[in-house]
Design a protein that fits this description.
There is one protein chain. The protein starts with 5 loop residues before the first strand and ends with a helix. The protein has one domain. It has 14 helices and ten strands. The relative contact order is 0.14. The strands form four sheets. A three-stranded mixed sheet has the order 2-3-10. 56% of the residues lie in helices and 10% in strands. By secondary structure, it is mainly alpha-helical.
């Protein structure tokens, strides 16, 4: 199954780089942040202006087309009121196919993510590592403590405009719709970020990414890619409904406080339900996302579920908000920014739900 490959990550470094407080973090975390800062510095040092790269007559056609698309999407984001700042003006080849690995963890008997707390971004339910062995070691430690763990690659990140985020080579394997949506997604994070509200932030950026991509391609006269972007958003909605049903089912099961034997049997039964859904109604409803054939049968992993739902939480609320604003992404995002002024944590979805209910 296709998964989003971007995270809010290096914004947590900014407080250290610029001299902010480290009161939130332990000595080990300070070392972790400084390591991340060094990686960020290396990426920035390696970056080149996209405009300069495009002036190179030896640049290959496929790569040129991707960079031209990114530059056009970035300019379009600014045109429709997103806070583009200096995001994606530059390009950096990171020299590997995996930018970083992201670790997520949850209790085995609850959908209850382990969180990390940092300056600027607040609490986040994941931790990113540039070094594979460090990510694997962190995952092992959490597994040894009895948690479900999940490691996934990420090919992009946002610093919320604190730095001149370059387009990274790890994002260049995407198709045209996904590449454009990535540009809008990451710039949407510059435009609106609610502290300690990762599911809201990522789900908002999904909404702002795909629907801006639909309008972008439509305005360029490419109706096929505009439709494809709309279909991608439709698929995110389908997956959002499926994951909500799974979370509800799992939460009801865990509420029964099963003993160890019943817990393992129930987790396996939840895994069978997942297989039935993905091979049946979910697959039948998807327009662009291709699922594995056959879907593997395995016990539910709560950490994996936490990781994939971050980007697909309460998506119908965003769709309703879009309808409230005349299906215009520019006015929808502008109004959302006003609605979320001063919000933090769970208050983000509470405000959105109330606003939709009052319409």
């Amino acid at each position: 199954m296709r998964r989003r490959g971007c995270v809010i990550f290096l914004a947590i470094v900014a407080a250290l780089v610029i001299g902010g407080s480290t009161a939130y973090v332990t000595n080990g975390e300070v070392r972790y942040l400084w390591r991340a800062a060094a990686e960020e510095a290396a990426i920035l040092h390696a970056s080149r202006a996209i405009d300069d790269i495009l002036r190179d007559s030896t640049l290959g056609g496929a790569h040129r087309g991707q960079l031209q698309l990114v530059a056009a999407a970035r300019d379009y984001a600014a045109k429709i009121g997103y806070e583009a700042k200096d995001t994606y003006r530059n390009y950096a080849d990171v020299g590997r196919d995996t930018l970083l690995l992201v670790v997520t963890a949850s209790g085995r008997d609850c959908i209850c993510p382990v969180v990390w707390k940092y300056p600027i971004v607040g609490t986040v339910p994941y931790k990113g590592f540039f070094v594979v062995k460090e990510a694997e070691a962190a995952g092992r430690k959490l597994t040894e403590k009895g948690y479900d763990t999940y490691l996934r690659p990420a090919g992009a990140f946002s610093t919320l405009g604190w730095f001149e985020d370059p387009l990274l080579s790890t994002a260049m394997s995407r198709d045209s719709v996904e590449l454009a949506a990535l540009v809008f997604h990451e710039i949407a994070h510059n435009s609106l970020y609610v502290k300690s509200a990762t599911p809201f932030n990522e789900s908002f950026a999904q909404f702002a990414g795909y629907l801006a991509a639909e309008r972008f391609f439509g305005d360029r006269g490419d109706s096929a890619l505009a439709r494809q972007a709309a279909d991608r958003w439709h698929d995110e909605m389908v997956l959002g409904d499926y994951y909500k049903a799974l979370v509800d089912r799992a939460t009801a099961f865990y509420a029964g406080k099963p003993d160890s034997a019943a817990l393992e049997a129930g987790r396996l039964e939840l895994g069978r339900w997942v297989k039935q859904q993905l091979e049946g109604p979910v697959r039948d409803s998807l327009r662009t996302i291709k699922l594995a054939t056959p879907v593997p049968e395995r016990p539910i992993n709560n950490a994996r579920l936490v990781g994939v739902t971050l980007y697909r939480t309460n998506l119908p609320l965003f769709e309703w908000w879009y309808e409230m604003h005349g299906r215009d992404i520019e006015s929808s995002v502008a109004a959302m920014r006003k609605l979320m002024d001063g919000a933090e944590g769970d208050e983000a979805f509470e405000r959105l739900e109330q606003a939709v209910a009052e319409d």
